[in-house]
Write a structure and sequence with these properties.
disordered N terminus, transmembrane helix, DUF4350, single chain, transmembrane, membrane, Membrane protein
Length: about 400
C-alpha cells in the first residue's frame, strides 16, 4: 500500500517539468544566460565593423582621406591598368614584374639597404618610381638627399635639357605641377625651382618624385597633376604598388642618428665649444688680490649734531646755522599743526606763521621774525643762541598750548 502511494505522489523520471520547475531554473541560470547574450552581441558588432580597415598613412593606395591615393588607384583601374598592392618584401617578390610593369614605392622612409637592393633587382624589368625618399632611402639609392621647400605653382616640367630626364621626361615636358609642399633634389631634373628639381630620372631609369603630393586625393586635380600621375604610373598595363614594412629590414639596416645630421653640424658644435671655453677663460681671469675695505663707522645722531655745530662755530657761518635752525623748526611745526612735511618749506611760510600764531596766541610778526628765512640773521654767537632758544620755546608752546 505504501509503495503504491509513493508511486502516486512522487514525480516520475520521465515527466515534463512544470511551470514551477522552469521558474526555478531561470532564477538560478539567468545571470549566465544574460552574460552569454551580451558576449554574442559584442561579437556580432565586432564582426560587423571588421571589414577592410581604412588606413591613414600618407600616399597609401587604401587611404581615402585627403593625403591618400585611393582616387588615383581607382582611375588607373578604370583606364585598364591592373593594380596590385603589396605590403611586404615577400609579397613584392611574389608579384610578377615585366617590361610593361610599373613599380611605385610609397612610405619610402621604411626602406633600408637590403630592401632597396631586393627592390631594384625585382623591379629591374619595369619602371621603378619612388615617392619622396627620405635621407636614409636616398643614401641607399645613391641619390643626393633632397630638401623640403614650400610649394607653389604651377611649375612647368622643363625637361628639355639633354640627359636631364630621358624618355620619362619627354612624356612630361608639356605638363605643369602644383603642390602645397615638395622635396627638391639638386641637379638637373623635371619641374625645377630655385632649390632643384622635383623629379629625377637615374641612369637605370629609376624615377624619384619629390612632389608626391600631386598624387594625393586632395591635390591630384590641380594644374596638370592628374596627367602627370597617369603618364608616370599608367604607362604600362600593370602597376605594382609597394608599401614597405619595417619588419622587412635586415639587422644591418639600422640608421644612425649621425647619418641623419647635416655634415656641418659636428664642426659647428666643436667651434661653439671652443668659443665657450675661450669666453669662460676671458671672463674668469683673476684681476689681482681682493682689496680689503674697512666697514663704515656708526656715529650717533647727537655726536653728528655736535660735530656740525663745532664746524659752524669754527667757520663763523652764523647765517648758515640760523637758516638750518629755522628750516628744522618750520618742518617740526608744520607736521605738528597738520600741514604736512611740505608745509614747512620756505614757500609756505605765511600759512605756517598764521597757524602758529593762532595756536600760541602770539603776535604774527614775532612768529615771522623767528621762522621767516628772510628775517635778519644773527651777527653774534649770543644772538644765534638766543634764536635757538626762542625757536625751542615756540616749539614747546605749540606742543603744549
Amino acid at each position: 500500500m505504501s509503495a503504491v502511494q509513493g508511486t502516486a505522489t512522487g514525480a516520475s523520471p520521465g515527466a515534463t517539468p512544470g511551470p514551477g520547475t522552469t521558474r526555478s531554473w531561470w532564477r538560478r541560470r539567468r545571470g549566465t544566460v544574460l552574460l552569454a547574450l551580451v558576449v554574442l552581441l559584442l561579437l556580432a558588432v565586432v564582426v560587423a565593423l571588421s571589414g577592410d580597415p581604412e588606413t591613414t598613412t600618407p600616399l597609401d593606395p587604401d587611404n581615402p582621406g585627403r593625403e591618400g591615393t585611393a582616387a588615383l588607384v581607382e582611375v588607373l583601374a578604370e583606364q585598364g591598368v591592373e593594380v596590385e598592392v603589396v605590403r611586404d618584401a615577400a609579397a613584392l617578390e611574389a608579384a610578377e614584374v615585366t617590361t610593361t610593369t610599373t613599380v611605385v614605392v610609397s612610405s619610402t622612409d621604411d626602406l633600408g639597404r637590403s630592401t632597396v637592393e631586393r627592390l631594384r633587382e625585382h623591379a629591374r624589368p619595369g619602371l621603378l618610381v619612388l615617392l619622396e625618399p627620405g635621407p636614409a632611402a636616398s643614401g641607399a639609392l645613391g641619390t643626393p638627399p633632397g630638401i623640403s621647400v614650400p610649394g607653389g605653382g604651377p611649375v612647368p616640367a622643363a625637361c628639355s635639357a639633354p640627359g636631364a630626364a630621358g624618355s620619362t621626361g619627354d612624356r612630361l615636358d608639356d605638363l605643369s605641377l602644383e603642390v602645397d609642399a615638395a622635396t627638391a633634389f639638386p641637379g638637373p631634373g623635371c619641374f625645377p625651382d630655385g632649390s632643384g628639381g622635383h623629379l629625377l630620372v637615374g641612369d637605370d631609369g629609376e624615377v624619384v618624385l619629390g612632389a608626391a603630393q600631386a598624387l594625393t586625393n586632395e591635390q591630384v586635380l590641380r594644374a596638370d597633376n592628374a596627367a602627370l600621375a597617369l603618364r608616370l604610373l599608367g604607362g604600362g598595363d600593370r602597376l605594382v604598388w609597394y608599401v614597405p614594412d619595417l619588419t622587412d629590414l635586415a639587422p644591418g639596416d639600422a640608421v644612425s642618428v649621425r647619418s641623419l645630421l647635416p655634415p656641418w653640424l659636428l664642426p659647428g658644435l666643436v667651434l661653439g665649444l671652443v668659443a665657450m671655453l675661450a669666453v669662460a677663460l676671458w671672463r674668469g681671469r683673476r684681476l689681482g688680490p681682493l682689496s680689503v675695505e674697512a666697514l663704515p663707522v656708526v656715529v650717533r645722531a647727537v655726536e653728528t649734531t655736535r660735530s656740525r655745530g663745532r664746524l659752524y662755530r669754527s667757520a663763523g657761518d652764523r647765517p648758515h646755522a640760523a637758516t638750518a635752525l629755522r628750516a628744522a623748526a618750520r618742518a617740526r611745526l608744520a607736521e605738528r599743526l597738520g600741514l604736512g612735511a611740505a608745509g614747512g618749506g620756505a614757500d609756505r611760510v605765511e600759512p605756517l606763521v598764521r597757524a602758529v600764531a593762532t595756536a600760541t596766541g602770539q603776535d604774527a610778526g614775532r612768529v615771522a621774525a623767528l621762522l621767516d628765512p628772510d628775517a635778519p640773521t644773527p651777527t653774534t654767537d649770543h644772538d644765534l643762541i638766543t634764536l635757538a632758544q626762542d625757536l625751542d620755546r615756540l616749539d614747546r608752546e605749540v606742543r603744549h598750548p
